[in-house]
Amino acid sequence: MSTHTIEPPAEQVARPAAPRAQPRRAPVVVPTAIVLALVLIGVAVLAVRELLVSQGWAAGSPVVPDLVAGLDGIGPSVGLAAAGGGIALVGLLMLWLALRPGRRTHLRVAGDADLWLEPGAVAAVAQETADRLPGVMSADSSRSSRRRVVVDVVVAARNTPDGPQEAAAVTEHVRAVLDDEVGRLTGTRIKVRATEVPR
User: Fold this and answer.
1) Strand, helix or coil at 189?
2) Which of the 8 DSSP states describes residue 18?
3) DSSP codes of every residue in 139-182
4) What Cα–Cα distance (Å) separates residue 49 from each residue in 9, 38, 172?
5) Do 64 and 52 form a contact (C-beta atoms < 8 A)?
6) Which run of H or E residues covers position 33?
7) Are 138 and 127 in contact (CB under 8 A)?
8) Residue 127 is inside which H or E element, if any?
9) Based on the number of CB atoms within 10 Å of its own CB, is 155 exposed (0-12), middle (13-18) or buried (19 or more)?
10) Taking each helix axis from N to C terminus, what angle separates 78-99 and 30-54, rounded to the nearest 10 degrees?
11) CA-to-CA distance for 158 and 160, rounded, in angstroms?
């Protein structure tokens, strides 16, 4: 049993021109923004409660005056300066993450239609295409990303002197078909790894 890996050169794959809007993930800062929004809602609820209690419209004792009194007497220190600087850095980092676009998640299909595919869908198409080709016993897409899809195929090789050459020809045919029907469809590089088994 032998294994061959065939990968098309990068210059053979032409990626279609991208339109103005591309599917992207939500910015990384979104979960943190949700948490901060919940914190601000809690602060607003506390402020409303303090207003109701201070005006005598609700029973209870104020909480904010006790918190302010506990902070009374605190003066400038290295610790407070370091904490303030850290908070400022965190704020700048969150601002940068909020302005940074999310990662691209889909691949555009060549043509005039605004059609997009996930890398997993491209890998599934490549796997099904390879599995239907003559001489291929089985196919599996082991890895996929926006730039490259790896397809593992099992090719039957006859136990004759010409068997390895025939298996290599089948592998080359698989690579050519996947490059033409799938690779050029989305601009994805298709890497074919073939394993020969006797028949």
Assistant:
1) strand
2) P
3) EEEEEE-SSEEEEEEEEEE-SSTTHHHHHHHHHHHHHHHHIIII
4) 67, 17, 74
5) no
6) helix 30-54
7) no
8) helix 119-131
9) buried
10) 120
11) 5
Q: Go through the chain and tell me how many residues it has.
A: 199
- How many other CB atoms sit within 10 Å of the CB of residue 44? 10
E strand or H helix at 4, and its extent?
strand 2-6
Tell me if 189 sits within 8 A of 12, measured CB to CB.
no
Does pTM surpass 0.70?
no
138 residue type, one letter: S
What span, in angstroms and rounded, lies between the C-alpha atoms of 2 and 157? 10
Q: Write out the DSSP string of 69-108.
A: HHHTT----HHHHHHHHHHHHHHHHHHHHHHSPPPB--EE
pLDDT of the chain, 199 residues: tens digit per residue: 566 665 555 555 555 555 556 777 777 777 888 888 999 999 999 999 988 988 888 888 888 887 777 777 777 788 888 988 998 998 898 888 877 877 777 777 877 777 788 888 888 889 999 999 988 888 988 777 778 888 998 987 765 566 567 788 888 999 999 988 888 888 888 888 888 877 6
Angle, CA of 16, 20 and 21, to the nearest 5°? 100
Unique residue bearing structure tokens 């969150």: 94
Structure tokens at 32: 């943190």
Q: Is 198 helix (H, G, I), strand (E, B) or coil?
A: strand
* In contact, 4 and 170? CB cutoff 8 Å: no
